[in-house]
Amino acid sequence: MKKLLLATALSTLAGAAFAEYPEKPITIVVPFAAGGPTDKVARDLGEALRTKINQVIVIENVGGAGGTLGASKVSKAAPDGYTLLLHHIGMATSPALYRNLPFKTLEDFEYLGLINEVPMTVVGRPTLPANNFAELMKWLEANKGKVNLANAGLGAASHLCGLLFQQSVKIDMTTVPYKGTAPAMNDLLGGQVDIMCDQTTNTSGQIESGKIKAFAVTTTKRLTTPTLAKLPTLDESGMKGFNVSIWHGLYAPKGTPKAALDKINTALKAALKDPEFIKREEALGAVVVTDNRVNGADHKKFVEAEINKWGPVIKAAGQYAD
């Protein structure tokens, strides 16, 4: 009986301690360099969250090792609600990509909710002879073994989409990894590489300005933004079932008190309904999540399903990192 009373008292004190949460700035760790697509999502979300949770939101970029350094830092951070992680699909692909992953994806984090889903686009250098997807396929067939496929590094969104694209078209290409999205795009613009499969957050502006060629989107439905609405889907172009979106989610270290998690999740849900945030995401071709995956439990179920989806793809390609 005394133990029960003590446990109740401690629980009450813990709840009281977080009643005023947050009392200081909250740091959102982005496991990639500043200026990239995930950093853009984090900064837009941080601005929306700031007004919902009434506290300063600090964005900290901890890049390296395909996002695993930043994620590892958060997994080991104090579980007090003041250090969060905003990560993309790498949360689900890291278990297959890295043999010595310094954290356990489904065990070392509290899941707060999914933020958005970002379609991918198949794009090419401006001097590529092809002008539509059918012409691209003919060009790829005619240049087997000579095509350079760029990506932003092992585990990056462009790497994952590129793997699935190669498997679908059954054409071997030379994969050219870069240290980030910006240098990969720069070489595509300059014609040093031929094609890339990358997020709309990174390609929309270049497509709109006519600096690169766009051939298709990776969702099963066409996009509605003016820049991308005319692009066919890979599914309708003959790759039945091809569906890749790069999502972003929010996480806290395992053991973060429920009172803090509830406040963050409530603020997150409000931020995802913020008109300015929605406007910014839609301008990039991203779709803000509004379904049950904004809840922690459903977010975690979704990530587990994504782990099961991407594991076989990565293992079949045989591309790993220590």
From TrEMBL:
Signal is among the record's keywords: yes
InterPro entries: BUG, Bug_dom1
Signal peptide: 1-19
Gene3D superfamilies: Bordetella uptake gene, domain 1, Periplasmic binding protein-like II
Pfam name, any one: TctC
Transmembrane spans: none
Signal recorded as keyword: yes
Key words, A-Z: Signal
UniProt family annotation: Belongs to the UPF0065 (bug) family.
Protein name (record): Tripartite tricarboxylate transporter substrate binding protein BugD
Taxonomic placement: Bacteria, Pseudomonadati, Pseudomonadota, Betaproteobacteria, Burkholderiales
